[in-house]
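Summary: Need help interpreting a holo structure output

Steps to reproduce:
1. Submit the protein chain below together with the SMILES for adenosine-5'-triphosphate.
2. Request a joint structure prediction with the ligand placed.
3. Inspect the C-alpha coordinate block that comes back.

Expected: a single structure record containing both the chain and the bound molecule.
Actual: see attached output.

Input attached:
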Amino acid sequence: MHSDFHVVNAKDLCLTFETNDGPVHALKDVNLQIDKGDFVSFIGPSGCGKTTLLRAIAALEHPTSGELIVNGTTPDLAREDRAYGYVFQAAGLFPWRTIAGNIKLPLEIMGFAKSEQKERADKVLKLVDLEGFGNKFPWQLSGGMQQRASIARALAFDADLLLMDEPFGALDEIVRDHLNEQLLELWERTHKTIAFVTHSIPEAVYLSTKIVVMSPRPGRITDVIESTLPKERPLSIRDSQEFIDIAHRVREGLRFGHGDGAD
Ligand SMILES: Nc1ncnc2c1ncn2[C@@H]1O[C@H](COP(=O)(O)OP(=O)(O)OP(=O)(O)O)[C@@H](O)[C@H]1O
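--- attached output ---
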Protein backbone atom coordinates (compact mmCIF):
# COMPACT_ATOMS: atom_id res chain seq x y z
CA MET A 1 0.00 0.00 0.00
CA HIS A 2 1.31 3.49 -0.83
CA SER A 3 1.46 5.54 2.33
CA ASP A 4 0.61 8.75 0.48
CA PHE A 5 -2.21 7.36 -1.62
CA HIS A 6 -5.72 7.32 -0.27
CA VAL A 7 -8.75 5.97 -2.11
CA VAL A 8 -10.66 8.92 -0.66
CA ASN A 9 -9.04 12.02 0.78
CA ALA A 10 -11.18 14.86 2.10
CA LYS A 11 -9.55 18.05 3.34
CA ASP A 12 -11.56 20.75 5.08
CA LEU A 13 -14.57 19.69 3.07
CA CYS A 14 -17.67 21.88 3.36
CA LEU A 15 -20.95 21.43 1.58
CA THR A 16 -23.79 23.88 2.02
CA PHE A 17 -27.22 23.57 0.43
CA GLU A 18 -28.92 26.84 -0.35
CA THR A 19 -32.60 26.47 0.49
CA ASN A 20 -35.62 28.77 0.76
CA ASP A 21 -35.13 28.77 4.52
CA GLY A 22 -31.49 29.75 4.21
CA PRO A 23 -28.28 27.74 3.98
CA VAL A 24 -28.09 24.17 5.32
CA HIS A 25 -24.56 23.26 6.35
CA ALA A 26 -24.66 19.57 5.50
CA LEU A 27 -20.89 19.09 5.89
CA LYS A 28 -18.40 21.29 7.71
CA ASP A 29 -14.61 20.93 7.83
CA VAL A 30 -14.63 17.23 7.11
CA ASN A 31 -11.15 15.70 7.07
CA LEU A 32 -11.00 12.02 6.28
CA GLN A 33 -8.82 9.43 4.61
CA ILE A 34 -10.05 6.10 3.35
CA ASP A 35 -7.29 3.67 2.40
CA LYS A 36 -7.34 0.75 0.05
CA GLY A 37 -9.02 -2.24 1.64
CA ASP A 38 -10.59 -0.21 4.47
CA PHE A 39 -14.13 -0.89 5.58
CA VAL A 40 -15.29 2.50 6.80
CA SER A 41 -18.67 3.07 8.43
CA PHE A 42 -20.33 6.44 8.84
CA ILE A 43 -22.65 6.65 11.81
CA GLY A 44 -24.62 9.57 13.19
CA PRO A 45 -28.13 10.87 13.74
CA SER A 46 -30.47 11.62 10.88
CA GLY A 47 -29.44 14.71 8.96
CA CYS A 48 -25.76 14.71 9.96
CA GLY A 49 -24.61 14.52 6.34
CA LYS A 50 -23.74 10.84 5.92
CA THR A 51 -25.55 10.48 2.62
CA THR A 52 -24.26 13.86 1.46
CA LEU A 53 -20.69 12.74 2.10
CA LEU A 54 -21.22 9.51 0.17
CA ARG A 55 -22.88 11.43 -2.67
CA ALA A 56 -19.99 13.91 -2.75
CA ILE A 57 -17.53 11.00 -3.11
CA ALA A 58 -19.72 9.72 -5.96
CA ALA A 59 -19.76 13.20 -7.59
CA LEU A 60 -23.54 13.38 -7.15
CA GLU A 61 -23.08 16.49 -4.98
CA HIS A 62 -20.34 19.07 -5.26
CA PRO A 63 -18.49 20.52 -2.26
CA THR A 64 -18.81 24.22 -1.56
CA SER A 65 -15.18 24.42 -0.41
CA GLY A 66 -12.26 22.22 0.56
CA GLU A 67 -10.70 19.38 -1.34
CA LEU A 68 -11.98 15.94 -2.23
CA ILE A 69 -9.84 13.39 -4.04
CA VAL A 70 -11.21 10.02 -5.13
CA ASN A 71 -8.85 7.41 -6.54
CA GLY A 72 -6.19 10.05 -7.01
CA THR A 73 -8.39 12.34 -9.09
CA THR A 74 -11.50 14.52 -8.89
CA PRO A 75 -14.81 12.87 -7.99
CA ASP A 76 -16.14 13.76 -11.46
CA LEU A 77 -13.27 12.01 -13.24
CA ALA A 78 -13.45 9.07 -10.85
CA ARG A 79 -17.14 8.78 -11.72
CA GLU A 80 -16.34 8.80 -15.43
CA ASP A 81 -13.77 6.08 -14.79
CA ARG A 82 -16.46 4.12 -12.95
CA ALA A 83 -14.31 4.01 -9.86
CA TYR A 84 -17.16 2.97 -7.59
CA GLY A 85 -20.32 0.90 -7.28
CA TYR A 86 -23.24 2.44 -5.37
CA VAL A 87 -25.75 0.48 -3.29
CA PHE A 88 -28.84 2.35 -2.09
CA GLN A 89 -31.12 1.73 0.87
CA ALA A 90 -33.88 0.40 -1.36
CA ALA A 91 -32.75 -2.36 -3.69
CA GLY A 92 -34.20 -0.42 -6.65
CA LEU A 93 -34.46 -3.37 -9.01
CA PHE A 94 -36.65 -3.05 -12.11
CA PRO A 95 -39.61 -5.40 -11.57
CA TRP A 96 -39.97 -6.21 -15.28
CA ARG A 97 -36.40 -7.43 -15.55
CA THR A 98 -34.98 -10.63 -14.18
CA ILE A 99 -32.25 -10.47 -11.54
CA ALA A 100 -29.61 -11.14 -14.20
CA GLY A 101 -31.33 -8.59 -16.45
CA ASN A 102 -31.08 -5.98 -13.72
CA ILE A 103 -27.40 -6.70 -13.16
CA LYS A 104 -26.71 -6.53 -16.89
CA LEU A 105 -28.58 -3.27 -17.49
CA PRO A 106 -25.72 -0.89 -16.62
CA LEU A 107 -23.32 -3.15 -18.52
CA GLU A 108 -25.64 -3.00 -21.55
CA ILE A 109 -25.69 0.79 -21.36
CA MET A 110 -21.91 0.80 -21.14
CA GLY A 111 -21.73 -1.28 -24.30
CA PHE A 112 -20.31 -4.53 -22.96
CA ALA A 113 -20.61 -7.49 -25.35
CA LYS A 114 -23.44 -9.93 -24.54
CA SER A 115 -21.04 -12.72 -23.61
CA GLU A 116 -19.13 -10.45 -21.24
CA GLN A 117 -22.40 -9.28 -19.65
CA LYS A 118 -23.37 -12.87 -18.95
CA GLU A 119 -19.96 -13.77 -17.62
CA ARG A 120 -19.97 -10.82 -15.25
CA ALA A 121 -23.56 -11.39 -14.10
CA ASP A 122 -22.78 -15.05 -13.35
CA LYS A 123 -19.66 -14.10 -11.44
CA VAL A 124 -21.30 -11.48 -9.21
CA LEU A 125 -24.38 -13.64 -8.57
CA LYS A 126 -22.02 -16.25 -7.23
CA LEU A 127 -20.22 -13.67 -5.08
CA VAL A 128 -23.46 -12.73 -3.30
CA ASP A 129 -24.64 -16.31 -3.02
CA LEU A 130 -27.47 -15.99 -5.56
CA GLU A 131 -26.24 -18.55 -8.03
CA GLY A 132 -29.22 -19.98 -9.89
CA PHE A 133 -31.48 -16.98 -9.19
CA GLY A 134 -30.54 -15.01 -12.31
CA ASN A 135 -33.74 -15.96 -14.10
CA LYS A 136 -36.04 -15.01 -11.25
CA PHE A 137 -37.84 -11.69 -11.05
CA PRO A 138 -37.23 -9.33 -8.08
CA TRP A 139 -40.67 -10.00 -6.57
CA GLN A 140 -39.82 -13.70 -6.40
CA LEU A 141 -36.98 -12.96 -3.99
CA SER A 142 -37.03 -12.03 -0.28
CA GLY A 143 -36.02 -8.52 0.79
CA GLY A 144 -32.59 -9.72 1.83
CA MET A 145 -32.04 -11.51 -1.47
CA GLN A 146 -33.12 -8.40 -3.40
CA GLN A 147 -30.60 -6.35 -1.47
CA ARG A 148 -27.91 -8.93 -2.30
CA ALA A 149 -28.92 -8.64 -5.96
CA SER A 150 -28.47 -4.88 -5.78
CA ILE A 151 -25.00 -5.43 -4.28
CA ALA A 152 -24.26 -7.79 -7.18
CA ARG A 153 -25.32 -5.07 -9.61
CA ALA A 154 -22.92 -2.62 -7.94
CA LEU A 155 -20.13 -5.21 -8.13
CA ALA A 156 -20.63 -5.94 -11.83
CA PHE A 157 -18.36 -3.08 -12.96
CA ASP A 158 -15.64 -4.54 -10.77
CA ALA A 159 -14.86 -1.15 -9.24
CA ASP A 160 -12.50 -1.26 -6.28
CA LEU A 161 -14.66 1.08 -4.22
CA LEU A 162 -18.13 0.23 -3.01
CA LEU A 163 -20.35 3.00 -1.59
CA MET A 164 -23.23 1.61 0.46
CA ASP A 165 -25.96 3.84 1.89
CA GLU A 166 -27.78 1.95 4.65
CA PRO A 167 -28.19 -1.09 2.45
CA PHE A 168 -29.68 -3.24 5.22
CA GLY A 169 -31.65 -0.55 7.06
CA ALA A 170 -35.05 -1.86 6.02
CA LEU A 171 -34.38 -5.51 6.88
CA ASP A 172 -35.16 -7.41 10.06
CA GLU A 173 -32.35 -8.08 12.49
CA ILE A 174 -31.81 -11.77 11.72
CA VAL A 175 -31.57 -11.18 7.98
CA ARG A 176 -29.37 -8.20 8.65
CA ASP A 177 -26.97 -10.24 10.82
CA HIS A 178 -26.68 -12.80 8.06
CA LEU A 179 -26.04 -10.18 5.39
CA ASN A 180 -23.45 -8.50 7.60
CA GLU A 181 -21.58 -11.80 7.86
CA GLN A 182 -21.81 -12.32 4.11
CA LEU A 183 -20.69 -8.79 3.35
CA LEU A 184 -17.57 -9.26 5.50
CA GLU A 185 -16.78 -12.48 3.64
CA LEU A 186 -17.25 -10.74 0.31
CA TRP A 187 -15.05 -7.85 1.40
CA GLU A 188 -12.31 -10.30 2.44
CA ARG A 189 -12.52 -12.25 -0.78
CA THR A 190 -12.63 -9.29 -3.17
CA HIS A 191 -10.31 -6.84 -1.34
CA LYS A 192 -12.73 -3.99 -2.04
CA THR A 193 -12.68 -0.69 -0.21
CA ILE A 194 -16.08 -0.08 1.34
CA ALA A 195 -17.72 3.13 2.60
CA PHE A 196 -20.88 2.19 4.47
CA VAL A 197 -23.58 4.38 6.02
CA THR A 198 -25.53 3.00 8.96
CA HIS A 199 -27.63 4.02 11.96
CA SER A 200 -26.74 0.89 13.89
CA ILE A 201 -23.88 0.89 16.40
CA PRO A 202 -23.48 -2.93 16.43
CA GLU A 203 -23.49 -3.03 12.63
CA ALA A 204 -20.82 -0.32 12.42
CA VAL A 205 -18.62 -2.00 15.02
CA TYR A 206 -19.05 -5.48 13.58
CA LEU A 207 -18.21 -4.52 10.00
CA SER A 208 -15.64 -1.76 10.14
CA THR A 209 -11.92 -1.29 10.24
CA LYS A 210 -12.66 2.39 10.84
CA ILE A 211 -15.77 4.01 12.32
CA VAL A 212 -16.51 7.64 11.56
CA VAL A 213 -18.88 9.23 14.08
CA MET A 214 -20.73 12.31 12.85
CA SER A 215 -22.87 15.02 14.42
CA PRO A 216 -25.55 17.19 12.82
CA ARG A 217 -25.91 20.92 12.11
CA PRO A 218 -23.42 21.40 10.77
CA GLY A 219 -22.43 17.87 9.78
CA ARG A 220 -19.01 17.27 11.30
CA ILE A 221 -16.86 14.32 12.24
CA THR A 222 -16.69 13.99 16.03
CA ASP A 223 -14.59 10.83 16.27
CA VAL A 224 -12.72 8.39 14.04
CA ILE A 225 -12.21 5.01 15.65
CA GLU A 226 -9.68 2.54 14.25
CA SER A 227 -11.07 -0.86 15.13
CA THR A 228 -8.83 -3.22 17.08
CA LEU A 229 -11.02 -6.24 16.31
CA PRO A 230 -9.39 -9.04 14.30
CA LYS A 231 -10.30 -9.45 10.63
CA GLU A 232 -11.86 -12.81 11.34
CA ARG A 233 -15.20 -11.93 12.97
CA PRO A 234 -17.79 -14.50 13.91
CA LEU A 235 -21.09 -12.92 15.02
CA SER A 236 -20.26 -14.03 18.57
CA ILE A 237 -17.49 -11.43 18.64
CA ARG A 238 -20.26 -8.99 19.56
CA ASP A 239 -20.25 -10.44 23.07
CA SER A 240 -16.54 -9.78 23.58
CA GLN A 241 -15.31 -7.03 25.89
CA GLU A 242 -13.33 -5.47 23.03
CA PHE A 243 -16.48 -5.14 20.92
CA ILE A 244 -18.45 -3.69 23.83
CA ASP A 245 -15.67 -1.16 24.51
CA ILE A 246 -15.64 0.05 20.88
CA ALA A 247 -19.46 0.27 20.84
CA HIS A 248 -19.24 2.31 24.05
CA ARG A 249 -16.82 4.75 22.44
CA VAL A 250 -19.13 5.14 19.41
CA ARG A 251 -22.05 5.83 21.74
CA GLU A 252 -20.02 8.43 23.64
CA GLY A 253 -19.07 10.07 20.33
CA LEU A 254 -22.73 10.25 19.32
CA ARG A 255 -23.65 11.71 22.69
CA PHE A 256 -20.89 14.27 22.54
CA GLY A 257 -22.05 15.31 19.08
CA HIS A 258 -25.53 15.89 20.40
CA GLY A 259 -24.82 17.42 23.78
CA ASP A 260 -21.97 19.65 22.78
CA GLY A 261 -24.12 21.25 20.09
CA ALA A 262 -22.40 22.63 17.05
CA ASP A 263 -24.08 25.96 16.60
N1 LIG B 1 -30.64 18.52 -1.98
C1 LIG B 1 -30.73 19.08 -0.77
N2 LIG B 1 -31.18 20.34 -0.63
C2 LIG B 1 -31.26 20.91 0.60
N3 LIG B 1 -30.91 20.31 1.73
C3 LIG B 1 -30.46 19.04 1.66
C4 LIG B 1 -30.35 18.36 0.41
N4 LIG B 1 -29.86 17.12 0.63
C5 LIG B 1 -29.69 17.04 1.96
N5 LIG B 1 -30.03 18.18 2.58
C6 LIG B 1 -29.94 18.48 4.03
O1 LIG B 1 -28.59 18.27 4.42
C7 LIG B 1 -28.52 17.65 5.71
C8 LIG B 1 -27.76 16.35 5.60
O2 LIG B 1 -28.56 15.39 4.89
P1 LIG B 1 -28.12 13.89 4.64
O3 LIG B 1 -29.17 13.21 3.85
O4 LIG B 1 -26.73 13.86 4.13
O5 LIG B 1 -28.10 13.31 6.13
P2 LIG B 1 -27.99 11.81 6.63
O6 LIG B 1 -27.03 11.85 7.77
O7 LIG B 1 -27.66 10.92 5.51
O8 LIG B 1 -29.45 11.54 7.17
P3 LIG B 1 -30.29 10.17 7.22
O9 LIG B 1 -29.60 9.33 8.24
O10 LIG B 1 -31.64 10.63 7.69
O11 LIG B 1 -30.30 9.59 5.86
C9 LIG B 1 -29.96 17.50 6.17
O12 LIG B 1 -30.27 18.61 7.01
C10 LIG B 1 -30.76 17.55 4.89
O13 LIG B 1 -32.05 18.07 5.11
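--- end attachment ---

Reviewer comment: The longest strand covers residues 22-34. The first helix runs from residue 50 to 57.
Status: needs-info
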